[in-house]
Structure formats: C-alpha cells, structure tokens
Amino acid sequence: MRTSIRRVAAWGAMAAWFASGSAMSATCGPDTTYAPTSDYSLTFRVCDNSFVGTVTARATGWVAVGFSRDQFMPGTDVFMAGVLPNATAYGLDAFAFLRNPPVPDPSQDVTLLSAGESNGITSYTFTRLLNTGDSRDFDLTDGAYYILAAFQSTSDDLTVRHSFSDASELTYTFAPVPEPASVLMMLAGLGLLAGRLRRGF
Ligand code: HEM
C-alpha cells in the first residue's frame, strides 16, 4: 500500500512537471505563429501570466498587432511600434475605437523588450500581462480573440493609415502557464496528501 501511494505520488509529480512544460522551457507555453502573408508574422507564447510576441514585417514604418472580438478594426486593442530613421525604438499601447488612428491608452501597459530595423524589415518583441487591469486593454484570459495585423510600409507617423491590414481566420485563447514555484507548491501539496494517506489521515 505504502509503495503504491508513493508510486502514484511520484507519477503525479512527474506528470505535473511535464504538463507545465517546466522540464524543458521554464515557464512558457508553446509558440504559435500567425502569418497572414510573407510580409508579416507574429510569433507568440504565454509565459506565466504574460503574453510575449515577436512581430516581423517588411516595413520601415509602424508595425502593429491587435486583439479584437471580431475581425474588424473598430473595438480593437492595439500595440503599434517601430524604429525611427535615427534608430530610436518606439511603442504605443492604444485602442482603435473606429477606423481612425487608434487613441493612446492613458495607461501604457505594454513593454517593448527589443526592436530593430534592417534591410527594410522591422522586428520587435513585446510583452504585456494577459490581464493588465486597464479597461482599455482586453483581458486576454477572458474568452477568444481574433488577432489583427497592420503595418505602414514607410511611415512611422502613427496617424498614417496602414498599407497592409488583416484579421486572423481563427480565434485564439490565452491561458496562463504556471510558474515553477506554483508547480512546486502543487507537488508539496501532493506530498502532504501522500503522507496523510499513508498515516490514514
Ligand atoms: C493610423 C492608424 C489607422 C488608420 C487611419 C486606419 C484606418 C482604417 C480604414 C480607413 C480602414 C478601412 C479601409 C481599409 O481597409 O483600408 C481600416 C481597415 C482595417 N484596419 Fe485600420 N487603421 C489604422 C490602424 C490600424 C491598426 C493598428 C490595426 C490593427 C492592428 C488596423 C486593422 C485594420 C483591419 C484588420 C482593417 C480591415 C477590417 C475593417 O474594415 O475593419 N488598423 N483601417
């Protein structure tokens, strides 16, 4: 009996460890890519409670990603970023209410981790909490979203309309990926449970 409880606890522990992806990739889920054309791609993953995305586009102007409940621009939570001719990177957390230039969020909740431009290609990596708590940012843990893509081939002026735009055919959901600390706490709980079972509670 004791051996089998220990065995079950050990297998449970290993399963939880592998399910969390912790053995190989720390705290992140798998990569997903949305590439509506060869000129634009977004590769993203969820790490703990954050969305981490890398966008690459054939553009020297602004490049954007959006989350929306439908495939249309009005009502889209966007991040627009790029690199100026003087090599300065910029990023703006904004919301598109209409088919007009998106309105900057009073609270800026997206972090540009890196950005570069070379040979006419802009690429950047950004992160934000799945749920920033800002009413101008969708809570990405709450249901399914379309991903919207847009870029301006040559202009960094965020009021100049895109030269390319697209909305995903599929919707995406973004579940938090637990930190190893949470997994360790779960394992500790399993250990306690096994101990109690052994002692007959
Ligand atoms: C200066 C900023 C922007 C302006 C002035 C603008 C304006 C417009 C206009 C006039 C249209 C309708 C005509 C067309 O298809 O081109 C449109 C469509 C669209 N825009 Fe934008 N846009 C801007 C930024 C963005 C951003 C940042 C995104 C998403 C990340 C986006 C996504 C879309 C999409 C997916 C469509 C096609 C679907 C629809 O008609 O709603 N736009 N935009």
How large is the share of residues in beta strands?
35-45%
* Strand numbers in spatial order across the main sheet: 7-6-5-4-10-11
Mean pLDDT: 86
How many structural domains does the protein architecture include?
Answer: 2
CATH topology of the largest domain: Immunoglobulin-like
Please give the CATH architecture of the largest domain.
Answer: Sandwich
Task: Give a quick summary of the entry.
By secondary structure, the chain is α+β, with helices and mostly antiparallel strands. The protein has 2 domains: 2-24 and 180-198, no CATH class; 28-172, Sandwich (Immunoglobulin-like). Helices cover 20% and strands 39% of the residues.
